[in-house]
């Protein structure tokens, strides 16, 4: 991989039915994920609200509450359009200024009740604006009382989906995730990561944005390029990522959901959920995009946990499971190479 | 009042001991408030942490937890300095660019346990940078199950402190508060307001910033001017505001702290605390300043409530006390003129 500028290359024109096809996939992904999660939960089902956005578009939000596994979970589909992208995106994609835009995507956050089951987030999205288009998204895992084999399983599943499309995807998108889901004011990762990417526009760049926040961000504006990819190749890749989710997370739920826990574990879970709130409200690009584009607030903030605790100056005691989370898991690790052998 | 530009007028040079005097007052204010709150609480006392800021300055943070009245409360004093103000402030004060800065202030947020006692916030602050200086701050009340007489008492006490210094202060700083403590994404005020002001630099302007968020914000960049005020006049005014706090809030605590409540009131209080988190992490200037200047995270986020709930699509039922909060109290009202006669 070599580091060359790619912003002057013109982009392939997407197929004429690009918006319909991506939007259809995003709805299918929402359906499949909700069906799989209901099966995992075993008790509750999703409630759906369809909504329109006055400025153009709409979506359907699905929420599960007080389930057998999920204290709260939300899976959103949306497609929105308008006359101008919001400033947070135009800053990074100046060539999209002055054009109408179209955006569609599926996003999900699950807050399980059992502290041994990790919180998980997924989001895949597609944008068109004037002559430019791009895909973005990813999935990441946020455990409270983690197991190495769970982190490894989650990463290995994502790596497999990536590798089938390009050998460079996982090696770039995994550290990008570590950087993106980083709480700078805490100097902490949000969890054990996964994959994250943005602005995948086929023009030969595996671009890592200049304003990511993590420890390696300063020298990572471009991490390399690979041959231009077609719109079809990127769309296939997005589908593979989305469709790998239930494999990556389902096994973890099945292994952990019935593990006994007490008030200590619950209190620590509530405390750590505070970090999720801090990340989503202070840093998250999707949340800021939603609030800036006059999105449906209840759907955007569905990612916030149902119950959260803050505690001034909390520090885990040495040699406890809580300290182990910070020391072993909230630092970038090569989970895809992990082996219990 | 007429609307004229004031940015070209040069400022009075502050007294040579300005920093020492303001910082001494801010510490005294912290001492007085903490002493008064301990008396109100009747059970717990404040724990103090002193801290240094590597880039210059430091502070002392005081927290009370699990008290008789206060589930959590934090009162911070800080004075910090450095080579350059952060971007969030330079955008509004471009003439401060390229200069070292000095900032000192006291801030406070109290989260009472009883849902009939409102949450309250106070912050007074002073900045110097190159040839410019200014005072800012205010105090505002966020009730859960409100009483009209409490909102009126809070406002009347603040109005009295304002009126003794200038008849135009309260009429400008009261609506400024309504605009500032506004959650645009909810189209909701944070509470019943109080007073808020920023950039009071003596140059004849009662300036209301261009990026406030409330309903009247668009045409409120300047609301008027009054004769230039001296540094001494503004410093006296700030002291009067700060010193009025215990009067404004103490009576409310005394009247409400022992009122019986049940799980319904507690659950609604936890839910409404979510708005406090949303405001502080998404909009609050002091929080953003702190995080951008590498402040002490635990002191900055001490304002977040100890326990918080989010609930998807919650709406209060018609003709309930919860609906009454939204309909009567979360809209700008002329509380200072309220009378039970």
What this model shows, in words?
The structure is a homodimer of 341-residue chains. Chain A is an alpha+beta fold and 341 residues long. The first copy, chain A, contains ten helices and twelve strands. Helix content of chain A is 36%, strand content 25%. Chain A has a seven-stranded antiparallel sheet with strand order 1-2-3-4-5-6-9. The first copy, chain A, has a two-stranded antiparallel ribbon with strand order 7-8. In chain A, helix 1 packs parallel to helix 5 (231-243), helix 1 (18-41) packs parallel to helix 6 (245-256) and helix 3 packs antiparallel against helix 6. Chain A is globular. Residues 1-8 and 215-220 of chain A have low confidence and may be disordered. Chain A binds chain B through residues 49, 63, 65, 72, 74, 184-186, 270, 274, 277-278, 281-282, 291, 297-298, 300-302, 304-313, and chain B through 49, 63, 65, 72, 74, 184-186, 270, 274, 277-278, 281-282, 291, 297-298, 300-302, 304-313. Strand 12 of chain A pairs antiparallel with strand 12 of chain B, so a sheet runs across the interface.
């Amino acid at each position: 991989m070599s580091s060359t500028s790619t912003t002057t290359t013109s982009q392939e024109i997407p197929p004429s039915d690009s918006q319909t096809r991506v939007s259809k996939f995003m709805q299918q992904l929402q359906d499949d994920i909700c069906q799989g999660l209901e099966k995992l939960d075993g008790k509750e089902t999703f409630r759906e609200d369809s909504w329109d956005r006055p400025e153009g578009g709409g979506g359907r939000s699905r929420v599960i509450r007080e389930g057998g596994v999920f204290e709260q979970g939300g899976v959103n589909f949306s497609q929105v359009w308008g006359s101008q992208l919001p400033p947070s995106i135009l800053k990074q994609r100046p060539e999209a200024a002055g054009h109408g835009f179209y955006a569609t995507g599926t996003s999900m956050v699950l807050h399980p009740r059992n502290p041994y089951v990790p919180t998980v987030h997924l989001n895949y999205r597609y944008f068109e604006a004037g002559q430019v288009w791009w895909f973005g998204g990813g999935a990441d895992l946020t455990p409270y009382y983690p197991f190495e084999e769970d982190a490894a399983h989650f990463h290995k599943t994502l790596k497999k989906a990536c590798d089938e499309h390009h050998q460079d995807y996982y090696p770039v998108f995994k550290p990008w995730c570590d950087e993106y889901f980083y709480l700078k004011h805490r100097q902490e990762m949000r969890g054990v990561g996964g994959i994250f990417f943005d602005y995948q526009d086929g023009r030969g760049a595996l671009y890592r944005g200049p304003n990511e926040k993590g420890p390696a961000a300063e020298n990572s504006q471009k991490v390399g390029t690979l041959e231009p990819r077609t719109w079809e190749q990127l769309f296939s890749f997005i589908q593979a990522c989305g469709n790998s989710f239930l494999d990556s997370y389902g096994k973890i739920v099945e292994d952990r959901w019935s593990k006994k826990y007490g008030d200590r574990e619950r209190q620590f879970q509530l405390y750590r959920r505070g970090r999720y709130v801090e990340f989503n409200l202070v840093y998250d690009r999707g949340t800021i995009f939603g609030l800036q584009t006059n999105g449906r607030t209840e759907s955007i903030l569905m990612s916030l946990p149902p119950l959260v605790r803050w505690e001034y100056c909390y520090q885990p005691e040495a040699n406890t499971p809580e300290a182990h989370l910070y020391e072993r898991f909230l630092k970038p690790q090569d989970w895809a190479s992990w082996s219990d052998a």
